[in-house]
Design goal:
Chains A, B: One of its GO terms (molecular function) is monooxygenase activity. Two copies of one chain form a homodimer. Chain A has about 100 residues and is of the alpha+beta class. Chain A has three helices and four strands; from the N terminus they run E-H-E-E-H-H-E.
Chain lengths: ~100, ~100
């Protein structure tokens, strides 16, 4: 079954857009690692928080991606810009609209 | 800018899978209403909650979809099966991987 993740991270004041750029650049590189979806969002009423929604072939694909050199480099660039406040929810993707067809 | 939504709903005990079927059927019909993504998920550690992630052309498209007869019918079928506990987070989609290209 495909693995879904929805989470948020909070940037230090003034650094949200820089973190967004890091995430969008990283998103472009994870398709080959089994990532189907990596959506980055922000809200008008919160100038520090960034929301990310991800769909992967499996949790194992997601976890393995965190060990890729390019992912580790992106995390290394973003972490100093973050407050350390995160939320996350993992789920099993059952289907819906807009995902490529495939196993799970 | 495209509109994103991540929310959860809680089904009465034993009714989660029925609600999932209602949502998946409804998801198939909203593409023409400006919906790019409608992902339905559940988790092994919670047999009542359903998570939904959506991306729309705009918040106006999303709001208008709630007034469609087929959406209202789906809501009417699902509501009696739900506890009334919801969470939601709206956000502006800045980009990422896996979304069709387009405005916003």
């Amino acid at each position: 079954m495909r693995f879904g993740y929805f989470g948020s991270m909070k940037a230090e004041p003034g650094h949200r857009d820089e973190v967004v750029r890091i995430l969008l650049a990283a998103a472009a590189g994870v398709r080959d690692a089994g990532c189907h979806l990596y959506v980055v969002g922000v809200a008008d009423d919160d100038d520090q928080t960034i929301w990310v929604t991800e769909v992967w072939d499996s949790k194992e694909h997601h976890d393995a991606s965190l060990r890729l050199p390019e992912t580790r480099a992106a995390i290394g660039r973003a972490m100093p810009l973050l407050t350390g406040e995160f939320t996350s929810r993992e789920f099993t993707v059952l289907g819906g609209l807009g995902l490529p067809s495939g196993p799970g």
